[in-house]
């Protein structure tokens, strides 16, 4: 389940900001060649596969009977050093997953968009500004605001999902709560909905 998320977010939230950064900050520099672009895509796939291997190997399922007699199928990871939520290996995996799919993308977007923002926001026209030049400046600043919103939306949507696994590693009894499955599904839906908001943001904050 995490495999697709890793591939999508690593490529979109690390590579794309870098491409935009290079296009704006070094417009006269030759564009990235097809070979390098292909290598980045291959690297993303390999990294996603490597991170997805533990899930493929250690995931198990069992049927749990609730107090009202209802049966619920639970999917969990059984690590070599212990069951899920009691394993140090699982905790290390969750922290690594957090860093790779959340911290690094946010740092990447923050750095590149901040540099782009400073470049666009501080750009001034030479001589007296015409109406067209003023509109161009406003358009650039609108782009800066849009990029800030994209970063904030990403952080808000994915933070509960990332924290869920860290918290349940510290407090395993939480997974036995009555509505934990519904809570997880809500958190999962929020994370997956992140991609839905970006087109809305682009349309809403675009002057055209």
Automatic annotation (TrEMBL):
It is a multi-pass membrane protein. GO terms for molecular function: tachykinin receptor activity. Keywords: Cell membrane, G-protein coupled receptor, Membrane, Receptor, Transducer, Transmembrane, Transmembrane helix. Residues 20-202 form the G-protein coupled receptors family 1 profile domain. The chain crosses the membrane at residues 38-59, 91-114, 143-166, 186-205. Pfam families: 7tm_1. It comes from Aromia moschata. Its main location: membrane. One of its GO terms (cellular component) is plasma membrane. PROSITE patterns: G_PROTEIN_RECEP_F1_2 (PS50262). Gene3D superfamilies: Rhodopsin 7-helix transmembrane proteins (1.20.1070.10). Belongs to the G-protein coupled receptor 1 family. This is G-protein coupled receptors family 1 profile domain-containing protein. It is found in: Cell membrane.
């Amino acid at each position: 389940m995490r495999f697709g998320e890793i591939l999508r977010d690593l490529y979109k939230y690390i590579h794309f900001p870098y491409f935009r950064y290079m296009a704006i900050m070094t417009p006269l520099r030759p564009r990235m060649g097809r070979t390098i672009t292909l290598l980045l895509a291959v690297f993303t796939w390999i990294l996603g596969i490597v991170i997805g291997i533990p899930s493929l190997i250690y995931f198990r399922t069992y049927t749990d009977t609730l107090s009202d007699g209802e049966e619920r199928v639970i999917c969990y990871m059984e690590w070599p050093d212990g069951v899920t939520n009691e394993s140090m290996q699982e905790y290390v995996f969750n922290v690594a997953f957090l860093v790779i799919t959340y911290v690094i993308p946010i740092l990447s977007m923050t750095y590149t968009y901040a540099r782009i923002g400073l470049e666009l926001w501080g750009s001034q026209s030479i001589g007296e500004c015409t109406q067209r030049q003023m509109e161009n400046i406003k358009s650039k600043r609108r782009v800066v605001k849009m990029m800030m919103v994209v970063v904030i939306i990403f952080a808000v949507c994915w933070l509960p999902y990332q924290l869920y696994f860290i918290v349940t590693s510290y407090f395993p009894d939480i997974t036995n709560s009555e509505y934990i499955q519904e809570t997880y599904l809500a958190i999962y839906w929020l994370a997956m909905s992140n991609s839905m908001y970006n087109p809305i943001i682009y349309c809403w904050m675009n002057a055209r």
